[in-house]
Amino acid sequence: MAELILGQVLSYHGDPFVLGPDAVQINTSGGVVMLGGEIVATGNADTLRAQYPQATVTDYGRALISPGFVDAHVHYPQTAIIASWGKRLIDWLNTYTFPEEIRFADPAYAAEIANRYFDLTLSHGTTTVCSYATIHPESVDAFFTAAQTRGLRAYAGKTCMDRNAPAGLQDTAKSAYDDSKRLLQKWHGQDRLSYVITPRFSPTSTPDQLAALGALWSENQSCLMQTHLSEQLDEIAWVKTLYPTARDYLDTYESHGLLGMGGLYGHAIHLEPREIDRLTEMGASLIHCPTSNSFIGSGLFDMQGTIARGLRVGLATDTGGGSSFSMLRTMAAAYEVGQLRGVSLHPAQLWWLATMGSARALHANTKIGNIAKGMEADLVVIDLGSTPGIEQATRRAQTIWQSVFPTIMMGDDRAIKAVYIAGTRA
Ligand code: GUN
Ligand code: ZN
């Protein structure tokens, strides 16, 4: 039976970075009809009520009905070490991350954290994530099993590392290829799950391992590939010593078959002109992780510059280098980074990044990221007055965006009224 939900419905006609804020429409008395996991109609509440008299109706009043949030770069195994104090990238990895990731050799622990992670992301209105697992194949199984049980569209891959990591956290070039291939065959295309080929980053892979994963990618071109690029200056200097003949950081990937249209490059803060040119030519996606970039002390991503070049940009929490599970908090951080660079991102642009922008970065924008007929019915319903502080800030609002912006800047999981996964309320 069809389900009709009513509220202020947000949808996109285009890219607000190209067309301006008017590319985002909010129908203040709108509705969405869902059936069979999909959106079958959108429009005015009264019209839809008349067209679907049999539908079950839920009226969310003044709440905002949005596409579910899409978090384009996370590490679900770092759930338990989020908000760990006092380190920068390399010593943060060695002190907090690697000891925690070693624990994922235990399938029961991996399952516990995967379930905890999805409970947290769903309570924050995030309906799709693209995650790194650990080197353990069991950690990939745990992630996809938990996602499949919840009916989610989800992306992940086995993180590959064959040097500069603890003994319990290394594979080899061959086992990385073999395990990734087996997991890809097992999970890629099952329900709404997609396997992502995942070399962690150049410092923890030998050239042989990067080449093996480049070969796997060329043999499986429907898969995305994710990695980290130019996050911190110390890291870039280290990459130079490990790959002395590479032209730059990106070249360590490019020369091993790991630069392409389906490539997702996390952070990408300190890019050189050649790197920007090549990423643009290849149509790659950059993933902006603003809370992480502040928390680990990495730097200020150049949103305006990369978007002006036509690069696809997604937005992400980077849990647990990022300091929040919330895409609302992540939008706020992106706004703050923009301010520090002299650019005030419009709330319509921030919202687009957290939904359609990330969906487009994952090449999933014909399925998720928008509210339109034929899209998968992954939705979040947002209370625009979820705390007294937010509620009083909206009282002076004269436009819909002025009433949304306080929730962007101050909202958290208390703003999430409801989440729909493939048309079913979670
Ligand atoms: N670079 C390599 N691994 C990681 C990671 O787990 N988190 C972040 N933020 N950067 C990385
Ligand atoms: Zn990361």
Automatic annotation (TrEMBL):
One of its GO terms (molecular function) is guanine deaminase activity. It is an enzyme of class 3 (hydrolase). It catalyses: guanine + H2O + H(+) = xanthine + NH4(+). It holds the Pfam family HUTI_composite_bact. The keyword Plastid does not apply. Keywords: Hydrolase, Metal-binding, Zinc. Binds 1 zinc ion per subunit. SUPFAM superfamilies: Composite domain of metallo-dependent hydrolases, Metallo-dependent hydrolases. Pathway: Purine metabolism; guanine degradation; xanthine from guanine: step 1/1. One of its GO terms (cellular component) is cytosol. Catalyzes the hydrolytic deamination of guanine, producing xanthine and ammonia. This is Guanine deaminase. It comes from Pseudorhodobacter antarcticus. The lineage of its organism: Bacteria, Pseudomonadati, Pseudomonadota, Alphaproteobacteria, Rhodobacterales.
